[in-house]
Amino acid sequence: MSKLPILLIGAGGHARACIDVIELEGRFTVHGLLGLKDQVGAKVLGYPVIGTDDDLQSLRQHQSHALVTVGQIKSPEPRMRLFNLLKSCAFEAPVIVSPRAHVSRHAALACGTIVMHGAVVNAGAMVGENCILNSLSLIEHDARIGDHCHVSTAAAINSGVHIAAGTFIGSNSSVRQGVHVGERCVIGMGQRVLKNCDPGTQLPAAVHRP
């Protein structure tokens, strides 16, 4: 079966990680990437940067699939803007799942979400649109992840947790079962979230002293 071409919107480090997952999954071939003006003409892992997001509308005439491959830490705004742009141009944003990840057949993933190597999404979990479930992250049973969230490397989202839209969960952080984390929170690396977080909460990276 022939592979479908896909455009990647973003040409930085996260795009390289996404390319590795896309290549291994095997459903799509990268037609090209869209980046900043000074990136046009360069290559990312051998794939050309063919334009900027200003070119999305014209590229839609020949392409039907696109994925946001800009990373997210401090703010979800860049990913949200690009995702809304690709939808307004009538692109289809597929779900991408690494074959080295596990997603329960009883879980649900919405469009534009990528599940990276070693991640686990257990039964009853629901993940919104345009999310990053990064390498080795864990989404336990019956957790709810809102749109435009990034669950970073080796973070653990325990059972029944609700994470609202636009929130970032840092590497090696864990969220206690049943906790609600509000919209647009930033939970820093290594944090242990044991109680509900109001929208906009900023928890800096945990400091471990000897």
Cα separation of the termini: 55 Å
Largest sheet strand order: 6-9-12-15-18-21-23
**Beta-strand fraction estimate:** 25-35%
* Count of domains: 2
Radius of gyration: 17 Å
Q: Tell me the major beta sheet.
A: 7 strands, parallel
Number of helices: 3
CATH topology of the largest domain: UDP N-Acetylglucosamine Acyltransferase, domain 1
**Which regions contain 5 or more consecutive residues with pLDDT less than 50?**
none
Keywords:
210 residues, alpha/beta, Rossmann fold, UDP N-Acetylglucosamine Acyltransferase, domain 1, 2 domains, 23 strands, 28% strand
Quick rundown:
The protein is α/β, with parallel strands linked by helices. The protein has helices at residues 13-25, 56-59, 77-88, and strands at 4-9, 28-34, 43-44, 47-51, 66-68, 96-97, 102-103, 108-109, 114-115, 120-121, 126-127, 132-133, 138-139, 144-145, 150-151, 156-157, 162-163, 168-169, 174-175, 180-181, 186-187, 192-193, 202-203.
